TrEMBL record:
The keyword Isomerase does not apply. GO terms for cellular component: cytosol; oxoglutarate dehydrogenase complex. This is 2-oxoglutarate dehydrogenase E1 component. The gene is sucA. The keyword Mitochondrion does not apply. Belongs to the alpha-ketoglutarate dehydrogenase family.
Length: 940
């Protein structure tokens, strides 16, 4: 707005002359929150002159300049005779009214009625008291402008305004949203809360549905408690409103066009949701309580409150596919798994805005603040490679935490949900004993998520009627709380009494609903009216079930085809200026494509990706440096040095190729690996690959490896073809940049649960990656990937080896040694092979054969026996490794070597001595150790 227009506007208003103080105070309110003043005033203040020549992007002008500016306009208007004087005291109080409105938006939640037990000791917020703002009883019947408060028109009596503010912001809902930066989002929330005073007027049908949900929640727990007394079930009692909440979220999402909902939660209330939302048959759950074993998984199985489930759920907008993720006892690690699964489903549907698939994660009040994976998952929520269009996060806040904790012990913030403020998520605290408020805020949360594609949090403030589990005695540590709980009516009774009192339902109708539900449990059939037979399978896993390791697969391809792919991945447009070192790499790749240079690691790896994409399969690669590669070898994303634009040769293979997402991830291992695990469990057809910057960093994701990757099939029957590239090799870089902890993966190997490979040539990595997709078996692939071998002069391959070869689990002796003269055979894996080879050649040793074991698990016994057939006369066998003796493959794999060598032969160890650290930190000591183990292996 030009100054002349602003001046004319001011002259035509009553805000001049004697009202300069009012304007200044109005501006102060605007500075605190722009929405606290009317839209007209927002326009005026938005267009104020800026201090010291600042740009229009700087919102705040110097206060003295603003004051002088308004006073000059007011004075000028007075001289023209257009001003009229109003009461400065009234105008000053008008500003105070606006400040009071703003105070309720900011801090009303701190005096809201959130605790069903009324045990919270909360200080009175003085800013919510009219007297704090100088408003007296004489002002109560005065009309004041309500600014942007979206209820009751432009003006209201102060007494009515205060009542509306208390009802909206200090009732059963405590809304925290003023910490958000985006004005549109804040205004949207105000428009949803304030016109209705934070309440909804539900009809009899809706209220009956809410009561049915509470009946089901309570009825299920009481039934289990009576039928299986003392058994662990992690009861929902006290937080019963979770059941109608989930039902309404799914209804609302279905109406908006959502096709799938993926849920992640820990123990509390899980069995209740399985039966009352997902439609698991009660009879099946009762069998699990009775200890009956199911042969469905043919594995170890897992406890019932870790189990997942899938079903279809009828909504007014169509059926919605529900999936409850399997999870271990790590309370929050399932959350990034859910997000990864959702991203895979969205990618498959081609849905960029997230509408078609909704993630819901359910947390405990201690876990959401105590587990760092929550922060990591929040941090990913808006990043390019991991966004899912926002999630709905529900907290079952039973105010106790795990067993004996109180709030002073479990967090340093006022609310357990304060962690969500890091991503500007709105947070809605709601009293779980007011189920209509719960449903209202649940519907609002779905709409917010769909509108803004961002996370939203609901803090369901409730209590826990029993201990952490049903064998626990909570009154030992929480005597006052549990004395109150014993006397407190259940949520179902509170709401049923309310509906009876308001004549919505008769008492006999309420009783009939209870009896009907119990009868349904007795029959053992599904108790969810909305359950439908599952037809909305997100992906077909049938081609990958019951597949074995040794199945044949098409490994070879024509030279013409691989030559064409080589040309595609080495081409860069002339206009795309490369950095000099990258340009040299691509110049070499052009020579490799022409057959004028042997293939290096990066070229062969990229060829594998290209062939998979040409087969119309999807590839997803993430890692902290995956675009270029930590060791400057991949360069799949090429950055123009002139304008920073990016070019990906792998996106230019063919017109109908498969999609590829190659993303540099957030600086996290646990959440990213969990995300990729979730992605791979929902996307079996392509290649999902996570690369550690250094293999050692996988330590930070050990819980994902232990509780999902290595055991998910055994516990839950969940197949997963995730590939992990873990740089591994002793290059003298110290204890944190040497070992990918090979021994830990081998310790987890059993039941053919995963593959552990140590490829040593470009051809091997090419075939290994292709095999992971082309072979129909889907199990995790753990790769000890190289560092120095990426550019080692001996670690090269020919185009023919790629086109006509296959992955070799065992690579026999490659030099032309006379096997009859060999009296020692050295087994090894990885980089150490080339050091052994170079030293053997240097010393002209002809009696020691070198055999590379490229797949340590499943151990390739048949290939090993075939390789050793020519060495049956040898009695001296050695396992040589770079790792200390208590690490690496020695302890976990030597029994395989003992079983393969000839009878009567000996197997000895050549490597570093046992060590508490993975590697030494001194380069000279490293070199001495390396030289020693090479000499030991070669008998020097």
């Amino acid at each position: 707005m030009h100054q002349g227009i602003m001046k004319a506007w001011l002259e035509s208003s009553h805000l001049n002359g004697a009202n300069s103080t009012y304007v200044e105070e109005m501006y102060e309110a605007y500075q605190e929150d722009p929405q606290s003043v009317s839209e007209d005033w927002q326009v005026v203040f938005d267009n104020l002159p800026h201090a010291n020549g600042a740009s229009a992007d700087v919102p705040e002008a110097a206060h003295s300049k603003v004051r002088d500016y308004f006073r000059s306009l007011a004075l000028e208007g007075s001289h023209k005779g257009s001003a009229r004087v109003t009461d400065p005291e009234v105008d000053a109080k008008q500003v105070k009214v606006l400040q009071m409105i703003n105070a309720h938006r900011f801090r009303g939640h701190q005096n809201a009625n959130l605790d069903p037990l009324e045990l919270w000791k909360r200080d009175k917020v003085s800013e919510l008291d009219p007297a704090f703002h100088g408003l007296t009883s004489e002002d109560m019947q005065r009309e004041f402008n309500t600014g942007s408060f979206a209820h009751g028109g432009e003006t209201m009596k102060l007494v009515d305004l205060i009542s509306a503010l208390k009802t909206t912001y200090c009732g059963s809902i405590g809304a925290e949203y003023m910490h958000m930066i985006d004005t549109d989002e804040k205004r949207w929330i105000q428009q949803r809360l304030e016109p209705s005073l934070g309440r909804a007027n539900y009809d009899k049908t809706a209220k009956t549905r809410i009561l049915r949900g509470l009946n089901a929640a309570e009825g299920m727990e009481k039934y289990l408690g009576a039928k299986f007394p003392g058994a662990k079930r992690f009861s929902l009692e006290g937080g019963d409103a979770l059941v109608p909440m989930m039902r309404e979220i799914i209804y609302r999402a279905g109406e908006a066009g959502t096709k799938e909902v993926v849920v992640g939660m820990a123990h509390r209330g899980r069995l209740n949701l399985l039966v009352n939302i997902l439609g698991k048959k009660p009879a099946e759950l009762f069998d699990e309580f009775a200890g009956k074993h199911s042969d469905a998984l043919n594995g170890s199985g897992d406890v019932k409150y870790h189990q997942g489930f899938s079903s279809d759920f009828k909504t007014p907008g169509g059926n919605v596919h529900l999936a409850l993720a399997f999870n271990p006892s790590h309370l929050e690690i399932v959350n990034p798994v859910v997000m990864g699964s959702v991203r895979a489903r969205l990618d498959r549907r081609g849905c960029d805005d997230g509408l078609e698939v909704l993630p819901i994660t359910i947390h405990g009040d201690s876990a959401i603040t105590g587990q760092g994976i929550v922060q990591e998952t929040f941090n990913m929520s808006q990043t390019r490679g991991f966004k899912v269009g926002g999630s709905i996060r529900l907290v079952i806040n039973n105010q106790v935490g795990f067993t004996t904790s109180n709030q002073d012990d479990i967090r340093s913030t006022e609310y357990c949900t304060d962690i969500a403020k890091m991503v500007q998520a709105p947070i809605f605290h709601v009293n779980a004993d007011d189920p209509e408020a719960v449903v209202f805020i649940s519907q609002l949360a779905v709409d917010y998520r769909n509108e803004f594609k961002r996370d939203v949090v609901i803090d369901l403030v409730c209590y826990r009627r029993h201990g952490h589990n049903e064998a626990d005695e909570p009154s030992a540590t929480q005597p006052l709380m549990y004395a109150k709980i014993k006397k407190h009516p259940t949520p179902r009774k509170i709401y049923a009494d309310k509906l009876i009192a308001e004549n919505t339902l008769a008492a006999d109708e309420v009783t009939g609903m209870i009896n009907d539900y119990r009868d349904a449990l007795d029959h053992g059939d599904c108790v969810v009216d909305e359950w439908r037979p599952m037809t909305l399978h997100s992906v077909d896993w049938s081609p990958y079930i019951n597949r074995e390791w040794d199945e044949e697969y098409p490994a070879q391809m024509s030279m013409d085809r691989i030559q064409n792919l080589a040309n595609k991945i080495s081409y860069v447009p002339e206009s795309h200026k490369l950095q000099s070192r990258v340009a040299k790499i691509y110049k070499d790749r052009t020579l490799m494509a022409k057959g004028e240079k042997l293939l290096d690691w990066g070229f062969a790896e990229t060829l594998a990706y290209a062939s998979i994409l040409e087969d119309k399969k999807r590839i997803r690669i993430t890692g902290q440096d995956s675009g270029r590669g930590t060791f400057f070898h991949r360069h799949a994303v090429l950055h123009n040095q002139n304008d920073a634009s990016a070019y990906m040769p792998l996106r230019n293979i063919s017109d109908d190729q498969g999609p590829i997402d190659l993303t540099d991830s957030v600086l996290s291992e646990a959440s990213v690996l969990a995300f990729e695990y979730g992605y791979a469990t929902a996307e079996p057809g392509g290649l999902t690959l996570w690369e550690a910057q250094f293999g050692d960093f996988a330590n930070c994701a050990q819980v994902v490896i232990d509780q999902f990757l290595s055991s998910g099939e055994q516990k839950w029957g969940r197949l997963c073809g995730l590939t992990m590239l873990l740089p591994h090799g002793y290059e003298g870089q110290g204890p944190e940049h040497s070992s990918a902890r090979l021994e830990r993966f081998l310790q987890l190997c059993a039941n053919h649960n995963m593959q552990v490979c140590v490829p040593s040539t470009p051809a091997q990595v090419y075939h290994m990656l292709r095999r992971q997709v082309v072979r129909p078996m889907r199990r995790p692939l753990i790769v000890m990937s190289p560092k120095s071998l990426l550019r080692h002069p001996l670690a090269v391959s020919t185009m023919e080896e790629l086109a006509q070869g296959t992955f070799q689990n065992v690579i026999p002796e490659m030099d032309s040694l006379d096997s009859n003269k060999v009296d020692r055979v050295v087994f090894c894996s990885g980089k150490v092979y080339f050091e052994l080879l170079e030293r053997r050649r240097k010393e002209n040793i002809t009696n020691v054969a070198l055999i590379r074991v490229e797949q340590l698990y499943p151990f390739p016994r048949e290939e090993m026996l075939e390789t050793l057939a020519q060495y049956q006369h040898v009695k001296d066998f050695v396992w040589c490794q770079e790792e200390p003796q208590n690490q690496g493959a020695w302890y976990c794999s030597q029994h395989h070597f003992w079983g393969a060598i000839p009878a009567g032969a000996e197997l000895t160890y050549a490597g570093r001595e046992a060590s508490a650290a993975p590697a030494c930190g001194y380069p000279t000591l490293h070199a001495q150790q390396q030289d020693s183990l090479i000499k030991t292996a070669l008998k020097l």
